[in-house]
Specification:
Rossmann fold, Tyrosyl-Transfer RNA Synthetase, globular, 15 helices, alpha/beta, two-stranded antiparallel sheet, RNA-binding
RNA sequence: CCGCCCUUAGCUCAGACUGGUAGAGCAGUCGACUGUAGAUCGACUUGCCCCCCGUUCAAAUCGGGGAGGGCGGACCA
């Protein structure tokens, strides 16, 4: 596989690359550059996470060395989103869910290295470096970096300003060439690019995935159940959530349903070598078949494809895509019960 | 260590002075209208009023104690 092909795989479906030239050089210079993404094990994982995880399959295919950090300490530092004594259980659940999603994306979870934050973040060397970073960073700088990630509050905790420093240091500790994450992570990684050269590590190339719009017409929110599909939602629930979604006819911008189709369904169908079939009643013109997302979007924009027909097709595809994850998680209900005792008694 | 303020629906808060077992907005649910959803209209739901003790016929409301949170001061030989 040549560099152009690898570059294409690595950057497809990405929201932004900082900087593309650096990435090209990296791919040219290294056979297997390292990329990492971190997840703080807080709330239950949902389909939004799938967007970022799905791409790990592309990375593997492009011969990248992929590391997933389960950032347990971060989950607690961020306004105690996860109570300290649930970190073990949630870490275990996250790894299982992530492996399930990798598998659903058509890759082998064994090809990915999983690392747990506290396994190295308490080391002497790491701690000292962190204190040095703290000494050279203003509160305002750190807060600005983390503002899209850390929960905002009238009385912010110190944890929230340590958070982006640690995340920057993680890039170094994991020896990552590429820092990958949702576009909400941009602020933190721009801080990393500023700081890391002073701390003995190259500026990471940053690769950001889009954050999918929610199903209710605003941002997807993990606390708003109707705005997202959960990995453990049964097919009926998935279909009714899609069916209830905000989806104006012909409107392509910020349309959650279309984004699901674009970033989740089509990439996976591509993997399966399948096309997207819309079953449509004869009175409205009969079935439609799409090979590429762009064709579907064009039809939707021209109002040839009605939202109701799009929804019913999307609902069943999404359900099918998450099915392996759903099975994996529901067959281990004790994992969820331990990680989220309040919602899974 | 000292002082002051806050804690009521999922969320933001009103009600406390002048005791009579709770309200608004948002959110949510359900209908109507749309070949979807939204918008709009109509209806509906929601509560250990932070905890304990006391006063009283009666306490979200008054008194005492406690917990959690916030703000400020003092200390800086």
């Amino acid at each position: 596989m040549d560099t152009a092909e690898r570059l294409d795989l690595v950057t497809q479906y990405a929201e932004e690359v900082i900087e593309e030239d650096e990435l090209r050089e990296l791919l040219e210079a290294e056979d297997d550059p390292s990329v990492y993404i971190g997840y703080a094990p807080t709330g239950e994982m949902h389909i939004g996470h799938f967007t970022t995880i799905r791409k790990l399959a592309d990375f593997l295919q492009a011969d990248l060395d992929v590391t997933v950090l389960v950032a347990d300490l971060h989950a607690h530092l961020d306004d105690e989103k996860s109570p300290f004594d649930l970190l073990d259980a949630r870490t275990e659940y996250y790894q299982e869910a992530i492996e399930g999603m990798v598998e659903a994306a058509g890759a082998n979870p064994d090809d990915i290295s999983f690392v747990r934050g506290m396994d190295y973040q308490l080391d002497e060397e790491y701690s000292l470096e962190l204190y040095r970073m703290a000494a050279e960073t203003t509160l305002a700088r750190s807060q600005r970096a983390a503002s899209e990630v850390v929960r905002e509050s009238e009385s912010p905790n110190l944890g929230g300003v340590i958070y982006p420093l640690m995340q920057s240091l993680d890039v170094k500790s994991l020896d990552a060439d590429i820092a990958y994450g949702g576009i909400d992570q941009r602020g933190i990684y721009m801080l990393s690019r500023e700081m890391l050269p002073e701390h003995g590590h190259d500026k990471p190339v940053c690769l950001f995935a889009p954050l999918l719009a929610g199903l209710t017409g605003d941002k997807m929110s993990s606390s708003k159940d109707a705005s997202k599909v959960n990995l453990t939602d049964d097919p009926d629930t998935v279909e009714s959530k899609i069916d209830d979604a905000y989806c104006p006819m012909g409107e392509v911008e910020d349309n959650g349903v279309l984004e699901y189709v674009r970033y989740l369904v089509f990439p996976v169908l591509d993997e399966w070598d399948d096309s997207f079939v819309v079953e449509r009643p004869e009175q409205y013109g009969g079935d439609l078949v799409y090979e590429r997302y762009e064709e579907l979007e064009a039809d939707f924009e021209s109002e040839e494809l009605h939202p109701a027909d799009l929804k019913s097709a999307t609902g069943s595809y999404i359900s099918e895509v998450i099915d392996p994850v759903r099975k994996r998680l529901t067959s281990q209900s004790d994992l969820l019960a331990k990680a989220y005792p309040e919602s899974h008694e």
